[in-house]
Structures are given as C-alpha cells and as structure tokens.
Amino acid sequence: MQWLSSVTEGFYNDAANWTGGEVPANGIDGKYGYINFQANDVTIKAPPEGLVENSGTIFLGTGNGTHTLTLDTRGTYWEKKGLKSVTEWWGVPFCQNLTGTHIFNFEGLSTVSNTVRVWRFDDALFTWESTGISKQKFDLWSGTLDMARPLYLGSNGGEVYFNIHPEATLNGSAEIQQRGNAVTHTTFLGGRHSLNGIYLKDQNANAGPTWVHVTNDAVVVSWGGLFLGNRSAIGLGQSIGLLDLTCTARMEVTNGVRLGAGNMSAVNLRNEGRIDVRENASFYSHNSVYFGNTQCSTGIVTVTDHGLFDGASSFYMGSSSNAVGHLLAQDDAAVVCGGVLYMGDAKQARAYVTLKDRATLSVSPVVGNWMCLAPNTDDAYGRFEATDDAVVTLSNQSSIEMTMGGTSRAELILAGNAQLRGGTGSALTNKSAVVGNTAVSLSSNALLAVRAVYGGSPADGA
Questions:
Q1: What angle do CA 163, 167, 173 make, to 5 degrees?
Q2: What's the pLDDT score for residue 397?
Q3: pLDDT confidence of 461, banded at 50, 70, 90?
Q4: Could you tell me if 110 and 150 are in contact, meaning their C-beta atoms sit under 8 angstroms apart?
Q5: I need a surface site. Which of 210, 213, 230, 295 has the fewest CB within 10 A?
Q6: Are 293 and 239 in contact (CB under 8 A)?
Q7: For the residues 154-170, what does the mean pLDDT come to?
Q8: Cβ–Cβ < 8 Å for 344, 350
Q9: Mean pLDDT of the region 147-168
C-alpha cells in the first residue's frame, strides 16, 4: 500500500493517508507500505501520544529534481519494533527503488516473529533531501535517533551525506557500517553520541574511500571498536576509511582501533585506514591500536596543531605480513602510547614514526614497557625519527630495542634539538648480528639519554 500522493503532511498512523484506508503493519505477515517522495516534498509525523509499530515501510526517493522527506517526532516519539522482515537486510530501507537498491538502511533484521527494536526517534527532526540519483543528504537536526540494528550507509545514491547536528544525538547498541560504494561522508557537528562500533568500509563494499568527520565540540564514543579500511569481500582490498577530528572534537574507542582492517586470512592490497587529528581535537583509545592490521594493508595516524592522540595500550605498527604503519606528529601535537610501541611487528612489515617541531611522544607511563624497532626477525623494518624541538620520554625500567635479530633492520635518528629521554634504568639494546642492519644517528644538538647501551658490532663479539 502507498502513502497518498495528495498528502504532503500527515500522521503515519492515520489510515486516511494510505491507499485502501489501512495503515501498514505486521511486516511480511501483514501489509508492506511505501512512501514515495520522488515528485514532491512529504512530511510524516508521529502522533502526540507516541507510536510503536512493526510495519515494513519503504521510504522511496531519487526522483527527478530535488525533494525532501521529513520525519517529525518533535514532542513525541516513533519506535520501530517487532518487525518481521522479508530478508535480514530489507525491512525499512531508505532506498532508490522497490527492488533492493538501498542508501540508508537498517540491517541484521529478523525474518521470524520477534520483539526486537529496529530504531526509535525521540523528539527528533530528521530529513532526507534527495537530488535524483546523484546526491542524497540525510540530516538529524534535533532529538535522538537510537539504533538497535546496524545502519548501513552509501550502498548507492551518488554522493551520500549524513549530518548529525549539535542539537541531535545519535546513539546505538548497534554499529554504523559505512559501505561507501557511493561517495559517503558522515559528519558529527556537535553533541554527544555513543555507538557500538564504526566500520569504514563494510566487508561487502566496492573499492574506494569513505569518510567520517567529527568537528566543533562533538564527542563520539565507539564502544565496539573502530575499523578503518575494512573491506574484505575480495583479497585485493582497495578500501580506504578516513576519520578526521577538528576544532575541540573528541573521540573515544573502548575496544581496539584497527587501521587497514579486513580479512585476516587474505591479502588486502591497498586497504588503508587513516586518522587525522587537527587543531585542538583529541582521540583516545582504551585498547590497542593496530597500524596496518591485515596483510599488505596500511595504517596512518597524523596529529598536528595542538591535537592529541592517546592510546592506553600498545601500538602495533605493521602488525601483519607486508603491512605498513605510519605515525606523524608535528607542530605542538602530543602522542601517548600507554603500552609497547612495536614498529615492524610482522614478516616484511614496515613502520615509520616521525616527530617534528615541538611534538611530544610519551611511551608508557607503566614501568617496564618499551619501544621496539623491527621486533619481527624476518625482514621487518622500523624507522624512528625526531627532529626540531621534539621530545620523546620513556618510562622507568624501559628500553629501546633495535630489532630482535634475524634479517630485520632498524634506524633511530635524532636531529636538531630533539630529545629522547629514558627513565630510571632505561637502556638501548642492539640485538642484530648483521653489520649495518641497525643504526643510531645523532646530529646538531640532539640528545639521547639512557642509562646504558648494550650490543656492539659483530666484529667485537658483542
């Protein structure tokens, strides 16, 4: 059944607004509905007493010209609950057609009778502005959208934008899976938000980049992890997930950060995850951070201006075979590694840490942790470079390990006025038995301050 084309504004549960005088209900056991706004603007409202219903209703856009669908629950609420769906991915889509081409979609649905919530709008104003098949713009202007099933963005639609405005809140016991086949940007413009995971891209995506932006004073918590460059539909990978934080924005991740994610058992050529922290923004990870998490993938973190990148646990840079990890901090940026800094942690992996200007790096406030360049013994490579007025501090009883032997290579370069200061009982240790595979270089006014240096050249028998 269809929302009447003559009704441009009305209550969803008013039977007079539907063909046949009946409201869609009961999922596939009842009657599906669709709301077509391809030719005119349509506003759908929830009644003042609130609405809980289980219909499968398709929101159909991408017609000629530009038209807007508005879901208005200001002063009330609308909850989708107990939907028995056609498939686990086709229940209440915002879509391009009636045959499966979706743009903004809730998945992980049930095909049997259930009492599970899909979503709920509370005191919210939500719009979808559709410009043909070329551009789709979704805006959560105010109120709360609570997601209980995964939200998939950008499977189609040309360019797709999802903006969460300062007066709005996006919460979810489910995750955002940003497929990004269409060029897709999700932007948090302010407010406080809590999600159960962010995936850029999802595993079935096509190649290419997709973005999440956190700006102004927005705070986003992802307690189910962060996965950037996550495509794994085919071994070639070619997925790029980009996250940037600006102004005084803040993000916290409580279950691991994986840059260059994907299928752990397959080559993921050019899968790349990137985090940029700029201005006065901050990023906090309460667990480990993996730079280049899967085979042949790349993980990049760039921290500039007065940005902060703070990890409570270890950094694994180049954590799978042939993976690459990059960490760049410059200007007055600060980086904290609360565990071990592993650089080149797998076979033929490469890792690069570069500090410039007045950037600072603190490796572990926990006694006994360390910094390890090329810990894997099979052709791994780790390069650490600090220049200008950069300062690196290590905790007490910590050490700098220049490889763990084998055929791996490590370089430690300090230049300008850069300082690397170890705590009480700290040491620099060379474990390579191959001449030329490790190098420590100091120039200008650079300072390396540790209690002891262990390991000489093989010719010395050390």
A1: 70
A2: 85
A3: very low
A4: no
A5: 213
A6: no
A7: 94
A8: yes
A9: 94
How far is Cα 245 from Cα 68, in angstroms, rounded to an integer?
A: 29
Contacts of 401 (CB under 8 A, 6+ apart): 370, 371, 372, 373, 375, 429, 431
Burial 390-416 (b: 16+ CB within 10 A, else e): bbbbbbbbbbbbbbbebbbbbbbbbbb
* Radius of gyration for the chain, computed over Cα atoms and rounded to the nearest angstrom: 26
**Tens of pLDDT along 7-57?**
999 999 999 999 999 999 999 898 899 999 999 999 999 999 999 999 999
Residue 276 CA to its chain's centroid (Å): 11
Q: Which two tokens stand for residue 4?
A: 């009447």
Q: The dihedral of CA 18, 24, 28, 32: what is its sign?
A: positive
From residue 51, alpha-carbon distances to 62, 73, 141 in Å are: 27, 9, 20
Amino acid type, 305: D
SS3 content of the chain, % helix, strand, coil (to 5): 5, 50, 50
Share of the chain above pLDDT 70, in %: 97
Structure tokens at 340: 């071990």
State the greatest distance between any 2 C-alpha atoms of the chain, in Å, as a whole number: 93
Q: Which CA distances in Å does 332 have to 108, 223, 278, 310?
A: 44, 29, 10, 14
Question: What does pTM read for this prediction?
Answer: 0.95
Task: List the domain boundaries for the chain.
Answer: 64-71+116-460
CA distances 75 to 125, 142, 213, Å, are 10, 11, 29
252-302 residue pLDDT tens: 999 999 999 887 777 777 789 999 999 999 999 999 999 999 889 999 999
Instruction: Please classify residue 97 by burial: count the beta carbons closer than 10 Å to its beta carbon, then call 0-12 exposed, 13-18 middle and 19+ buried.
Output: middle
User: Torsion over CA of 152, 155, 161 and 166, rounded to 10 degrees?
Assistant: 0
Does 457 score more than 60 pLDDT? Answer: no
Integer CA distances (angstroms), 157 to 178, 208, 209, 210, 378, in order: 13, 15, 15, 14, 46
Taking Cα atoms as reference points, which of 274, 272, 243 lies closest to residue 260? 272
As a whole-number percent, the residues of the chain with pLDDT over 90 amount to 79
Q: What's the rounded Cα separation, in Å, for the pair 108 and 394? A: 46
